[in-house]
Amino acid sequence: MPETQNDSAFDATKITRPAPVLLTYYVLVSVPSLFLALPLLWFRFLTLRYTFDHEGVSMRWGLLFRKEILLTYRRIQDIHLTRNLVQRWFGLATVGIQTASGSAGPEMSIEGILEAEPLRDFLYQQMRGARGETELPNDASGKPVSLGHGTNTTELLREIRDHLARINRLPEDQQ
């Protein structure tokens, strides 16, 4: 399996194309159809482009009939990471992005991603940031309260309780 970068070095804005191994995956997927689907999958691979910017994510593909999907981070409701047996063998994954559109499937499926977990984390971070959910309270010294990664609800509530207790003990001139 290919190595993945650590989370601090991951930059989703540099993802513009699927990994080249996706073409090999498409060849294997087209075997049951006696390679009839291969030309369509090959053109999809050649034209598939991703763009991650500060407003959202877009995906476009197509040779004769161009298709483009643009999702702002505010519209994202849920993100799913899927891998079948062959995708795991190649180190690939599909990141499915769902919105409140009412459809059963994902609104956008980002295929051919080698660094799926960091991409999913990036999308969750952008999704929460677009809704204003990432701001942390400050402690008495003005520093943001660290909630830690993977904090469970009980620990989070205790930290909020302790933070409020510290605020209530401060003299009025420091509040």
UniProtKB/TrEMBL annotation:
| Membrane-spanning segments | 23-43
Looking at the keywords, is Signal present? no
Give a yes or no for keyword Iron-sulfur in this entry.
no
**Domain YdbS-like PH as annotated: residue spans:** 47-117
Keywords on record: Membrane, Transmembrane, Transmembrane helix
Annotated protein name in UniProt = PH domain-containing protein
Q: What is this organism's lineage? A: Bacteria, Pseudomonadati, Planctomycetota, Planctomycetia, Pirellulales
